[in-house]
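User: quick one, fold this
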Amino acid sequence: MACPFFLPTGPFQDSSWATPPRLPLGEACRGVCRTGDDLFEPAENILRSFCNRGYGKYGCPRFPANAAADALRYSLESDRDGVLVIQYIYEHEYGPVRHGRLEYRAGVMEGELDDPVARAQALMFAEGLVKRKATA
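Assistant:
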């Protein structure tokens, strides 16, 4: 479950994890925090501990106390004919508060989701699936 304020900009080019943990977006990502009006680039330890893993309200100093969601979850619903159907779920206190589906095909994410952070995370998730499938 990634942080709902974490806008990924790409995967880490290097990783200090000997064995990377299973992560919500498929791999550890660099990115920026969108909790305020400005874009803030968190330190690597914050990126690894909260941004990539979610539930930042339990330790991230920038996490807003009144956030409607504290994590975003993504899963693959189907993979047919070059179309990935991705489910997204906004969570608060470990329970779902909003959900929907997106379709990814040929590098393009389609579907109703007006949140640019969630769309970027879903795109990173889908591209990671495609990359892992190609190397399997």
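User: anything notable?
Assistant: The CA atoms of residues 13 and 20 lie 13 Å apart.
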